Amino acid sequence: MAGVKKVVVLDYGSGNLRSAERALHRVGAEVTVTADREAALEADGLVVPGVGAFAHCVQELRAVDGPRTIGRRLAGGRPVLGICVGMQVLFERGVEHGHDAEGCGEWPGTVEQLQAPVLPHMGWNTVSAPADSVLFAGLADERFYFVHSYGVREFPLGQDGRPGPLAPPKVTWAEHGDRFVAGVENAALSATQFHPEKSGDAGAQLLTNWLATL
């Protein structure tokens, strides 16, 4: 679609709203930070940020009807980008501090503590993206900024090798102690475990790549 892309950063009380807003504005988007459901449904793109505990983020997201808004957009092929815990809540469940919480269920999988000698995983790290990735196009060997102790260590969807009517998700991995999901591209739904808005030029290029899909 020609012209400036209109993006809503979903304000549900969690996430680096202003830094996400600034980063998207910097790469040419027209950005609104709001909890308004109609605005979130009508925008060219919806960004779901998130920081903190999985269960709390899901609770706050439900308070603004976020899961249904995300589902409605995806049903119409309207792009959504989850960031950090905003990616994690898209999975089926999260297990944190012994608390098992239900997520949005857009993808099967469990968010759990990383198996690493040092937590949180904080700082710059490389990722391993599929060759046909759109989000990571032109970003081979770049580093991205992570801050998290929990992640998705298994991504079962599309891994059985059986052909289906839909293309399997493109999964990007990173390592800290062991392997975890660093990014997913699944039709209109994309997400990153790292913070593109804190990842300098590499993060700006990733956001530019995402905007180009809107």
Range of helix content:
10-25%
- Shape, per Cα inertia axes: globular
Sequence of secondary-structure elements: EHEHEHHEHEEEEEEEEEH
- The average pLDDT value, as a whole number, equals 95
Give the name of the CATH superfamily: Class I glutamine amidotransferase (GATase) domain
> Might you state the CATH topology name?
Rossmann fold
Question: In total, how many beta strands?
Answer: 13
Keywords: Amino-acid biosynthesis, Cytoplasm, Glutamine amidotransferase, Histidine biosynthesis, Hydrolase, Lyase, Transferase
Subcellular location: Cytoplasm
Main location: cytoplasm
EC number: 4.3.2.10, 3.5.1.2
Write up this protein.
The protein is of the alpha/beta class and 214 residues long. The chain has a single domain, classed as Rossmann fold (3-Layer(aba) Sandwich), CATH 3.40.50. It is built from six helices and 13 strands. The strands form three sheets. The chain has a seven-stranded mixed sheet with strand order 2-1-3-4-13-12-11, sandwiched between helices. Strands 6-5-7-10 form a four-stranded mixed sheet, with helices on one face. A two-stranded antiparallel ribbon has the order 8-9. The protein is globular.
Tags for this model:
214 residues, Rossmann fold, 7-stranded mixed beta sheet, 13 strands, 24% helix, 33% strand, hydrolase
Concise overview:
With 214 residues, the chain is an alpha/beta fold.
What are the SSEs and their pairings?
Layout: E1 6-10, H1 17-26, E2 30-34, H2 37-42, E3 45-48, H3 54-63, H4 66-75, E4 80-83, H5 85-88, E5 91-96, E6 99-102, E7 107-113, E8 121-126, E9 143-148, E10 150-152, E11 170-176, E12 178-186, E13 189-192, H6 200-211
Parallel strand pairs: 1-2, 1-3, 3-4, 4-13, 5-7
Antiparallel strand pairs: 5-6, 7-10, 8-9, 11-12, 12-13
